[in-house]
Design goal:
57% of the residues lie in helices and 9% in strands. The chain has 43 helices and 15 strands. Strand 2 and strand 3 form a beta hairpin.
Length: 939
């Protein structure tokens, strides 16, 4: 059922939340709390329907504000509502009334003929608005109006890159503020003027002042304007910045004069107020491309408006909405680029236009004869800005194209140093480029300044770099790639302990890191590519980009098959780790084993330790605990031989021992880790100690100690940022609540844990935590009288991950047997199969919203002894009987495989089938079952 839009009825808001209708009064704190997370509401009166939408001013750095829309006589009209805190009932209805009162342009023109005369303006200043109306600038207009009407803010400069719409905005402001200045508004275009001395001449001409000498012109203008209450609009000031002091003198001599300038750079005058004009706000890419919603996007609305001037029949439809949205993003919401692209629609459909937009610059050259020459192509506009740079600035501007997604000062200094072989004042150059609006500051909150180019500007800079010699191009890209290799390797040394601190610093460099990888790969430096791919192990892990990392390493390993090097061995080991985390165990074992063999061949003991540790962890995840212990013990012995301590290896071996049930040995190692961690101040080591001791306490049924230790482990892991382990601990803490009898508390914790697992984009990085959650919710459902739902949840958990903490096994088996007895084999099997087929998120959603099937009220299911048919063993295949005989004798999967001459994977398949038939979930339970029911008589 589709959820309706929030609506205002008088001063009450009606909206739906989790399927229930909610009401709150406009103007209350609840209203403002709701507005902070809302994006839209509607209101209807006698004039029709009005929609209020939350939009962002300019680029992503702009603040959020509300805007109201109303369709009248086939035209969509809009009005600025303001920021959230301004939305009182009186303000909303007032704006709504003003919007409803807007009449047609013809009516307004008719009224204008009979209106009082406007203040006279000079001949040169007649203000003609562009044929295209101004779109998406309501907030900017309101802010500029407010600034220019304040006596103390007498000079305002609208800055921004070429093509962002400065002139259009200035014309609109000039026309709108005409009544506010008693002596009028004078608009002077400086587009054709290149000499600073000619600025006063152009101004005099606009004002109707005649004088031949420069000093006489300045004096005449001052005399004319000294007592005037006037707004002077000077457009395109960037090419005559040297004339700025003349304007400052004029302002000092004329106390009632106000000046609005447009420029690609600031004028640096006393009292100058800078108004940065950003590109138009872009539509959200994460939601469906709904034409009705997209029409409210300023960038899309402008594109449609220009499109209809060239192709009147053009409409935004469900078929082309996605392409139009993508076009606006490709062009960065830059008004000039949108205008030039729309001019191509008579030749291209939106889909074809989008396909032709890479590269952008050739396509965005047209015959827009109504535009100034500098704006008839996007390249002309950028050439105009580029020519304002000095040679040193131009050289740095070329270099900026090698960065993808932005750069820091440190990064640019490194690349510039390698490129030139000499030290240059990069900070001063960046400041100048920022001042001239060719680059942008992308993260104002970051400790280290970060800058970026709009993609259209970056493409232009790339063409300039491509025009340099091939050797210079190679040096630039090589310097970029080498810097990011060094950055990644430097970070990888510390990633294990300060993951939470390093990830936010490296995440903005994601695109640069991948660009460096690609450069090394495509230019034959495979060893450097392997080094970079391996160094990014923790980066991919912390950012949930396991698949991306595995894909890159797979490509690089395929290109380096003949290599016998530490770089390849390390990459194989990391690739195996990434595959293991995604549950691709065969590939993980294959890569990990090859890496281990290569390290052995190279005699690299440190590499052998790492490879053994990764393989051991993979075996734990696969459920081969005995083999995991063997690998871990081998690594531990090598570590002792080398006389070193490796916390990661100790942690893996402790985990393997706990899963294998070797608690005493695990406890001894825990003491080693505790001692070393305290000595070294190792938070991760202490977190492992607490987790391990908590797990051992649970096995010993010391719930109080377990809870305290697990909470300490969780808090410490949160400090270092290991989310996968944190999720597992949260699941174990919920399990403790189940054992304490706090069923409803456990249920809430499990549901919150499930939400967190699914919020991480993929469950591949937390399979054990999610399976633990599903099993726990199954026990909760069983104890709350929903046995069928319990079985479905257990089936889903079994499909996802069969690994189980040792302390889980017995409680789970008890509940499983009791529910199976209650439901009977057929119902149990059917419900189990349903659970294996329904997506886990659907089952969890049903749990969260209480949408399970109604079941008969059943008291807490007490453990019972199930009836066993002696014919059960007759259902076993011959190979299953062989496997069970060896399993009962305590053989591991690998030992069974060797004795029966089959693969360990085949053994695992037979063991899984045996578990299902005997209704057990572990080797110990299967052994106990076989012995209790005299399996030997059925051999």
């Amino acid at each position: 059922m589709t959820q309706s839009s929030p609506r205002l009825f008088k001063d009450m808001l009606l909206y739906e939340q989790q399927g229930r209708v909610q009401l709150l009064r406009v103007g209350t704190q609840a209203w403002y709390d709701w507005l902070s997370s809302a994006s839209l509401f509607t209101i209807t009166n006698a004039a029709g329907s009005f929609t209020a939408r939350k939009e962002r001013a300019g680029s992503k750095r702009g603040g959020w504000y509300w805007k109201m829309y109303h369709r009248q006589q086939g035209k969509l009209r809009s009005a600025y509502l303001g920021k959230t805190e301004r939305l009182t009932w009186e303000h909303v209805t007032g704006v709504m009334q003003r919007l409803a009162d807007i009449r047609s342009l013809d009516d307004r023109k008719q009224e204008h003929r009979h209106a009082a005369p406007v203040p006279a303006i000079a001949h040169g200043s007649q203000i003609s608005l562009p044929l295209i109306s101004l779109i998406g600038r309501d907030q900017e207009i309101a802010q500029l109006e407010e600034m220019l009407c304040q006596q103390e803010k007498r000079i305002v400069t609208v800055t921004g890159m070429g093509g962002v719409g400065k002139t259009h905005l200035a014309l609109h402001i000039a026309r709108k503020l005409l009544p506010a200045f008693a002596d009028g508004v004078v608009f002077v275009s400086l587009e054709s003027i290149s000499e600073a001395d000619h600025v006063l001449v152009a101004l005099a001409r606009a004002l109707g002042v005649s004088a031949r000498e420069k000093l006489a012109i300045a004096a005449s203008i001052q005399t004319l304007l000294q007592q005037k209450h006037m707004l002077l609009v000077l457009d395109n000031f960037e090419q005559v910045v040297a004339a700025a002091p003349q304007i400052e003198k004029l302002l000092m001599a004329c106390p009632r004069l106000a000046v609005l300038t447009t420029s690609r750079m600031a004028l640096h005058l006393r009292g100058e107020q800078i108004f940065q004009l950003a590109p138009l706000a872009l539509p959200d890419l994460t939601t469906p491309a709904d034409p009705e919603i997209l029409l409210h996007s300023p960038a899309v609305a402008l594109f449609i408006q220009h499109a209809q001037t060239h192709l009147p029949s053009f409409q935004l439809t469900p078929a082309n909405a996605s392409s139009v949205r993508a076009i606006c993003h490709q062009l960065d919401g830059l008004p000039l680029a949108l205008e030039l692209a729309a001019a191509r629609l008579p030749l291209f459909s939106p889909e074809a236009l989008l396909a032709h937009l890479l590269p952008r610059l050739p396509l965005l050259a047209g015959s827009q004869q109504n535009l100034p020459t500098r704006q008839q192509t996007l390249r002309n506009t950028l050439d105009w800005s580029y020519q304002l740079l000095d040679p040193s600035e131009q050289r740095v501007f070329h270099l900026l194209s090698v960065f993808v997604g932005g750069w820091t000062l440190r990064a640019l200094e490194a690349v510039a140093q390698a490129f030139d072989g000499e030290h240059r004042d990069v900070l001063q150059t960046l400041t100048s480029l920022l001042d001239k609006n060719l680059i942008q500051r992308s993260d104002l909150q970051a400790t280290e300044p970060r800058f970026r180019l709009l993609e259209t500007v970056r493409e232009y800079a790339s063409t300039l770099l491509a025009a340099q010699s091939e050797s210079e191009q190679i040096v630039a890209h090589e310097a970029h790639a080498s810097f990011y290799l060094e950055l990644a390797e430097e970070a990888s040394v510390h990633f294990g302990d300060v993951l939470h601190l390093l990830l936010p610093c490296l995440e903005p460099e994601h695109a640069n890191l991948l660009a460096a990888l690609q450069w090394f790969q495509t230019h034959g430096n495979i060893n450097a590519a392997l080094r970079l791919g391996s160094a990014l192990e923790w980066f991919w892990a912390g950012g949930n980009a396991w698949g991306e990392g595995r894909w890159w390493l797979e490509q690089l390993l395929a290109q380096s098959q003949a290599e016998i090097s530490t770089e390849r061995a390390r990459a194989l080991t990391v690739a195996g780790k990434l595959a293991q985390t995604q549950g691709i165990y065969e590939q993980a074992i294959s890569w990990g084993s090859e890496g281990l063999a290569l390290f052995r061949q190279l005699g690299d003991n440190q590499g052998i330790l790492v490879a053994l540790g990764h393989l051991a962890y993979t075996e734990i995840d696969r459920g081969f605990y005995d083999h995991a212990v063997l690998l871990g013990e081998e690594a531990y012995a090598l570590e002792q031989q080398m006389g070193i301590y490796t916390r990661a290896l100790h942690c893996t071996l402790i985990r393997a021992l706990i899963f294998a049930g070797a608690y005493e040995r695990a406890a001894l190692l825990v003491e080693n880790v505790r001692s070393m961690s305290l000595r070294q101040g190792d938070l991760t080591g202490m977190a492992t100690v607490h987790f391990a001791l908590g797990a051992i306490a649970l096995v010993r049924k010391d719930l109080y100690a377990a809870q305290s230790l697990l909470q300490a482990a969780r808090n410490t892991y949160q400090a270092v940022g290991f989310m996968r382990i944190i999720l597992e601990i949260e699941g174990v803490l919920a399990f403790v609540d189940v054992q304490r009898g706090a069923i409803e508390t456990a249920r809430k914790k499990y549901l919150e844990l499930a939400r967190r697992c699914f919020s991480r984009e993929t469950t591949g990085d937390a399979p054990l935590a999610l399976a633990l959650t599903l099993r726990g919710l199954g026990i909760v459902a069983a104890r709350q009288g929903r046995p069928t739902e319990a079985v479905r949840l257990w089936g889903a958990a079994d499909r996802l991950n069969r690994n189980m903490f040792p302390f889980e096994r017995h409680p789970y088996e008890v509940e499983l047997k009791a529910v199976r007895t209650l439901l009977g084999k057929a119902t149990f099997a059917r419900s189990w199969d349903q659970g294996t087929q329904v997506p886990a998120d659907s089952l969890l959603s049903a749990q969260e919203h209480g949408m399970w099937e109604v079941e008969a009220e059943v008291a807490h299911i007490a453990p019972q002894s199930p009836e066993v048919s002696s014919s059960l063993f007759e259902t076993f295949t011959a190979r299953e009987i062989d496997v069970l005989q060896l399993l009962v004798r305590g053989k591991t999967d690998r030992q069974i495989a060797e004795q029966l001459v089959i693969s360990p994977r085949t053994v695992n398949t037979h063991v899984t089938s045996l578990y299902r038939k005997m209704d057990v979930t572990s080797r110990s339970a299967a052994t106990r079952y076989a012995l209790e029911h005299n399996f030997s008589t059925h051999e």
